[in-house]
């Protein structure tokens, strides 16, 4: 909590400096009033957010803070441009043009962040297993849909269209299906759209940390009523050829170990392991798991977290093979608590699982 208090004050100082540069108040009193207004707005948002820490009100605080962070990016880019033009090329200073440039850059950054959040793309990966598989299996992976106030029916429709166009054999959802609860889901009848997500071998999901914030039973019920099988430390045999193992999130203290879950399956067949977080890579790579699918990280979602999380996590985003296990961490289809992505983009993965030993 102290981090957010200190961060808010630093953010207010930065925003005050940028706005004073842009507006250029003519008197000391006007400057003081502007700075005071910025501090009041920021701290009011902070207090409002802390009354519901890491839930809906706090998300509003995060949105306000991130929009100010984008102001910093715009100011920094503008300063670099000014330095190049005025110092390197010896051009005459034009304050009005510089201010117009800063506004343009800010609008471009916010627009790009919103575009990345709401304009998903499709990525593909082919995974070859040493185990026999009569024919390739096409798997659609989505994660972190975070269905809620800022992400709902329109995005579900788009997701269904994207997945249908790829004709997958099976669809899997790697947790954080809802954004904390089912309130927005129920109020806007998202069930009608989510129930259209189908595949020949079925649609399966595991729960993520946001699905366990007190609404796990309601979320599980909503998901299953939409025709999606929630795998809570369970396994299912797909097309009599590939085992799909689903494990609950780390937050579930009763969840089984990966080794215990594999006792439920015949590991001579390809094994697909689905869970929310990529936190058990060492554990899973020591077992006969062919493909591990997860999400949770959002790929960092917003720069510079995109880079920081690459440094702090074994696999923040993308694919990596360890021993005989192929790991894939998706940045997610949804947006989490804030409707922005900068340095990442909403996505769906299409994975083709094939055998390297030929058809049987």
Give the proportion of residues in helices. Answer: 40-55%
Major beta sheet, strand line-up:
1-12-2-3-4-5
Q: Taking Cα atoms only, what radius of gyration do you get, to the nearest Å?
A: 24 Å
Mean pLDDT over all positions: 95
Low-confidence regions: none
Head-to-tail CA distance between termini:
59 Å
Instruction: Please outline the major beta sheet.
Output: 6 strands, mixed
Q: Strand portion, in percent?
A: 15-25%
What overall geometry do the principal axes of the alpha carbons give? elongated
Question: What's the order of the H and E elements?
Answer: HHHHEEHEHHEHEEEHEHEHEEE
Count of discrete alpha- or pi-helical segments spanning 4 or more residues: 11
Instruction: Give the structural class.
Output: alpha/beta
Number of strands: 12
Structural topology:
Elements: H1 2-23, H2 28-50, H3 56-88, H4 95-118, E1 121-129, E2 137-142, H5 153-166, E3 170-174, H6 183-187, H7 191-194, E4 203-206, H8 216-225, E5 229-230, E6 234-238, E7 242-246, H9 258-262, E8 271-274, H10 281-285, E9 291-294, H11 305-312, E10 318-322, E11 325-329, E12 347-355
Parallel strand pairs: 1-12, 2-3, 3-4, 4-5, 7-8, 8-9, 9-11
Antiparallel strand pairs: 2-12, 6-7, 10-11
Helix pairs in contact: 1-2, 1-3, 2-3, 3-4
Would you write up a description of this structure?
The protein has a 6-stranded mixed beta sheet, with helices on one face. The protein is built from 11 helices and 12 strands. The model has no long low-confidence stretch (mean pLDDT 95). The longest helix has 33 residues, at 56-88. It is of the alpha/beta class and 360 residues long. Helix content is 42%, strand content 18%.
């Amino acid at each position: 909590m102290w981090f957010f208090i200190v961060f808010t004050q630093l953010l207010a100082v930065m925003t005050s400096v940028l706005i004073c540069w842009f507006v250029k108040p003519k008197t000391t009193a006007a400057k003081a009033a502007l700075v005071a207004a910025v501090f009041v707005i920021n701290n009011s948002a902070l207090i409002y957010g802390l009354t519901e820490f890491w839930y809906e009100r706090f998300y509003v605080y995060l949105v306000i803070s991130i929009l100010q962070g984008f102001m910093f990016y715009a100011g920094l880019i503008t300063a670099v441009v000014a330095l190049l033009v005025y110092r390197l090329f010896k051009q005459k200073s034009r304050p009005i043009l510089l201010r117009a440039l800063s506004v343009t850059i800010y609008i471009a950054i916010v627009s790009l962040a919103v575009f990345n959040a709401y304009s998903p793309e499709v990525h593909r990966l082919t995974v070859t297993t040493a185990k026999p598989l009569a024919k390739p299996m096409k798997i659609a992976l989505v994660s972190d849909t975070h269905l809620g106030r800022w992400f709902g029916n329109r995005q579900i429709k788009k997701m269904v269209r994207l997945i249908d166009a790829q004709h997958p054999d099976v669809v899997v959802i790697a947790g954080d299906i809802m954004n904390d609860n089912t309130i927005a889901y129920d109020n806007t009848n998202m069930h009608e759209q989510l129930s259209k997500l189908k595949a020949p071998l079925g649609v399966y999901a595991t729960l993520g940390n946001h699905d366990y914030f007190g609404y796990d039973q309601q979320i599980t019920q909503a998901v299953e009523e939409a025709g999606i099988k929630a795998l809570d430390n369970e396994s299912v045999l797909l097309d009599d050829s590939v085992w799909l193992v689903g494990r609950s999130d780390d937050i579930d203290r009763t969840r089984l170990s990966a080794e215990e879950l594999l006792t439920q399956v015949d590991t001579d067949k390809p094994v697909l392991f689905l869970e929310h977080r990529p936190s058990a890579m060492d554990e899973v790579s020591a077992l006969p798991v062919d493909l591990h699918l997860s999400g949770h990280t959002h790929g960092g979602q917003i720069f510079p977290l995109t880079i920081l999380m690459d440094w702090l996590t074994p696999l923040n985003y993308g694919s990596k093979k360890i021993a005989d296990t192929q790991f894939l961490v998706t940045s997610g289809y949804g947006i989490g608590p804030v409707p922005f992505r900068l340095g990442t983009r909403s996505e769906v993965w299409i994975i083709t699982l094939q055998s390297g030993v030929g058809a049987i």
